[in-house]
Request: fold
Amino acid sequence: MTTALTIKALPYSPDPLALFARLRKRPGAVLLDSGRPVATGRYDILSSDPLATLEITPSGHSMFNSTQLQLPATFNDMNSNTAGCTTALQEWMLAQLPGTHEESELPFLGGLIGYWSYDLGRNNLATPSQHASATALPLARLGLYDWCITIDHERQQTWLVAPPLRQQQVTEWLTHPLVEDDEHFYLTSPFRAELSQADYTERFHAVQRYIRAGDCYQINLAQRFSASYQGDEWQAYQRLRKATPTPFSGFMAWKNQAVLSLSPERFIQCRDGLVETRPIKGTRPRGSTQEEDRALAEELLSSSKDRAENVMIVDLLRNDLGRVCTPGTIRVPQLCQLESYPNVHHLVSVVQGQLAENHSPLSLLTAASPGGSITGAPKIRAMQIIDELEPCQRSVYCGSLGYLDTRGSMDTSIAIRTMVADAGTLHVWAGGGLVADSKAKEEYAETLDKIRHLIGALE
Reply:
């Protein structure tokens, strides 16, 4: 058990990558990156050396590792990844950290940081897959962290949140000389698509048949690209981040696996019981000139097809949040607003609600996962069709990266624009929502637009 934490001011660090470089070789090092100064995020969160690590394996077993915490006997035989089991174990882990008497608006004061995969959410909804996983990554990997460094770019402040002993350790780690890596990152093969354009088009038409038959209104169909590589995944992340900084980015690496996420999309934030999700639907590439760029943005804003696609997902998410929020509190303060990133324009909406007293942020996350913006509507049938048409499971892609702190604060992304490294192979997925008036050629091109900057940064 750790002692109560304190909050100590550090010199402001405008570059989280430089600070994280001193910690990243520590066990369980993790970076949640707001993409500043280009992106609009406010906080960066860095940590390492978790008190415990929880992995949910592809077979559904819970693997709990800790030299400091003893798992209760009630969990020792846990071999199921059902929502109730994994939520109970995560709630128990959070309870091992003491509360704090510190009054702070900082988003994270100790708790869980990691990812929950798309396939964990699919399993929790009892939607089995007929395909093998594309990677050997766990269905979820979460660390229990009793300290962090938080950079507040809005106020230009940096804070070390930690118990006294941890503060001493972290201070020492930050003063160690920075050792440059000699593991230069490079691809040993180009990225290759799992589906040809003809294969994608065949699946596109299958979706259209399901829509005409009334099975669904929208399906988010994705394709996977893979390349072999050698070297340091952290170098790859730095190149990706330079090419396309986004407000919900993140990096974590362990053994021969890593997650490199450059997501522009928030999934769920919960602070003081206020719940917010920010679905993205509707995409155009950036133009090569100011005039072309402005025309593409205006085309997206005036597109009835893209607006309808976005509104469908807003309705789905209103329903998802309504299962765990107080009746009458769901509202949509922003509908189909334009947001622009280095590679694409998006339409983004905001859905909010007040978390019901009998629900926790973890039960909220479980109820809403996977996010509706990356499944389609209705959700269960959409996920069944996705599994039928996509050749492999999605792994971390379209899952969630983020944190859950001991006060109940939570913020998670939708893990799009995300690369997964596994034993010398990098995987990246790209998809888009298909509706009745979608066109195969345009939708195929959109998937390429979404990841062109990522692939180009590494090739």
Q: What stands out?
A: The chain has one domain: 6-458. The domain at 6-458 is CATH 3.60.120.10 (Anthranilate synthase).
